[in-house]
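Run log // design_07
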């Protein structure tokens, strides 16, 4: 398997509140867990987690257009594949 796909949801978005600085936001995500009843209808996270998936992703984004692409509570795919 060369690519692993995970389904994470946005738990929190924290925007900077420092006047005079460039806009940025820190996006915090956790895995969607469960199956049909809990939102992972495709069973996506079974590709990397045999049981209840656990994890946390936190990224700081400095591109305003990219910040706008994330919504609290919405799920997103994360694809992991080797470089090169």
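design_07 sequence
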């Amino acid at each position: 398997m060369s690519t692993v796909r995970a389904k994470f949801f946005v738990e929190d978005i924290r925007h900077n509140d420092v006047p005079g600085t460039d806009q940025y936001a820190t996006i915090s995500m956790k895995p969607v867990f469960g199956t049909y009843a809990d939102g992972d209808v495709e069973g996506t996270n079974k590709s990397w987690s045999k049981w209840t998936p656990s994890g946390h992703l936190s990224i700081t984004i400095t591109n305003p257009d990219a910040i706008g692409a994330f919504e609290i509570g919405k799920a997103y795919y994360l694809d992991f594949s080797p470089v090169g």
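The longest strand covers residues 4-15.
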